[in-house]
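Message: Study each token:
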Amino acid sequence: MFVPGLLSFLVAHILYTTSFHNVPPLRVSWTAIPFGVYAASMMTALYPGVAREDIAVQVGVVVYMLVISLMAYRASLSGNVVLIAGTLLFCASDSILAWDKFLHSYAWCELAIMSTYYAAQLCIALVHT
């Protein structure tokens, strides 16, 4: 059920990204560098675990990482601190989830994943109300 879940959250992040109001058109700027470093670092760290999965998971994880990084980058262009916090919390939640699934599980992972996930949802909902 991992791939269907990944796809549903991928679609959700694409919809979130397109729903951000008052965000300038996508442009390349120096502020994109931290998001690119985040994506490259996570993919490098996750590679040993992701490489053991089938191709659908491998491709899905790469695409998902690019989309969530783009979502956080677009939020950073908005200047809205709450929106930025929400997208960064999503990055944290999904990073912990990926680490838990592909590398090493810790007892605290589920609590960390869910608390950052709900905090991310709250931040984005506050911006969109």
The chain is about 80% helix and 0% strand. The radius of gyration is 14 Å.
